From TrEMBL:
Protein name per Swiss-Prot or TrEMBL: Recombinase RecA
Family annotation (InterPro entries): DUF1844
Domain of life from the UniProt record: Bacteria
Pfam hit, one: DUF1844
Region feature Disordered, mapped onto this chain: 103-124
Length: 124
């Protein structure tokens, strides 16, 4: 059996971030949910949703938001059967981001053609 080398300590790491060895002890549903939450949070930032006026956000980048939302949709589609009670809130969060994207776009796409909709179907 090959031994996994220890990673050097990262000074930016907080106690809430698991080390590689601790990841083996975390249930898959929690890893998937954490990844979904990270994608949701990043997409919300790229949509400017953390600002009072999203259009004035220095972090607003709809192209990046599109990529994050599409990745989130793919993750949700592939893992929904494993999410159990987390599936509903994660899908709701995805839908809200898809709708926020449509509202943010100067030229909104038709339902079924927005970010991630190839995985989720049209969002209204």
């Amino acid at each position: 059996m090959t031994e996994v080398p220890e990673l050097p300590e990262d000074p930016a790491r907080t106690d809430s971030e698991p080390t590689v060895r601790e990841l083996a002890e975390i249930p898959a549903v929690e890893v998937i949910t954490r990844a979904a939450v990270m994608l949701m949070s990043a997409a919300a930032e790229k949509l400017g949703l953390s600002e009072d006026d999203p259009e004035e956000s220095p972090h607003r980048d709809l192209d990046e938001a599109r990529r994050l939302i599409t990745a989130l949709a793919g993750l949700v589609k592939a893992s929904v059967e494993y999410l159990g009670p987390h599936a509903g809130p994660v899908r709701d969060g995805l839908k809200q981001l898809q709708l926020a994207f449509r509202e943010s776009s100067a030229f909104p796409e038709e339902p079924g053609h927005g970010p991630g909709e190839k995985f989720t179907g049209p969002v209204w």
